[in-house]
Specification:
Radius of gyration: 16 Å
Shape: globular
Distance between the termini: 15 Å
Largest sheet: 9 strands, mixed
Helix content: 25-40%
Structural class: alpha/beta
Length: 215
């Protein structure tokens, strides 16, 4: 059985919506093995990673209370080291949407991802996602109402595999690379439940899960 642990939901993102999107993607996996997804809180991350699951999915921003005067974060220095060690030793991580937002760019975690959330235009936009560079007519191109993430990215040290374009310009929407003995995959869509349940999004998410699980 394939063991997956998933950390979903935060102040801005409903965990049940992400769970529905993840389950839609898991239902599309081509693997013949059963996939067991455990949904965890940030307080359980350390213990769960000790069990060496095949994949850790993080769809939770670092800030716990972003609108308060004194903002708290969940990624402690100990957890930062634990997550990166888990991947270095052969685990895989998928940073999904908010899973690359509000983290310190100096953290081991963001250094491992080789990219992070910068900003998105206010509200939802008409966003087009492309699998073949910025080719609007390329195979697999589709559009939906979404937050278009603009990111910081070390493009020279990762493989970009998804692009986006919207009212405010072009961006990168997905990338992947090896890290130590493990794998790192980053996927920026989608923000809404409708977006996460879109067949194109769940299909792309399934592909990334399969890549991360392939040794």
């Amino acid at each position: 059985m394939i063991q997956v642990v998933a950390l979903l939901g935060d102040y801005w993102h409903d965990g049940d919506d992400a769970k529905a999107g993840l389950e839609a993607a898991v239902s599309k996996l081509a693997t013949s093995e059963e996939v067991d997804v455990q949904y965890i809180t940030y307080k359980q991350v350390s213990k769960e990673l000790d069990a060496k699951p095949e994949l850790f999915i993080n769809a939770k921003m670092d800030e716990l209370n972003p609108r308060d005067e004194h903002v708290e974060t969940w990624l402690t220095e100990e957890l930062d080291r634990k997550i990166t060690n888990y991947v270095e030793e052969g685990g895989s991580i998928l940073a999904w949407h908010a899973g690359m937002a509000s983290y310190s760019v100096e953290s081991r975690y963001i250094q491992m991802l080789r990219g992070s959330f910068d900003y998105h235009p206010p509200g939802l936009q008409h966003v087009t996602y492309m699998r073949e560079g910025n080719h609007l007519e390329g195979e697999g191109t589709f559009s939906l109402s979404d937050e278009q993430y603009f990111v910081h990215l070390d493009k020279g040290n990762t493989e970009v595999d998804l692009w986006s374009t919207g009212e405010e310009g072009d961006s990168v929407a997905g990338w992947k690379h090896h890290y130590g003995k493990g794998k790192v995959c980053c996927f920026t869509p989608a923000h809404t439940r409708e977006g996460m349940l879109d067949d194109n999004i769940s299909g792309l998410l399934a592909e990334r899960i399969e890549w991360a699980l392939t040794k």
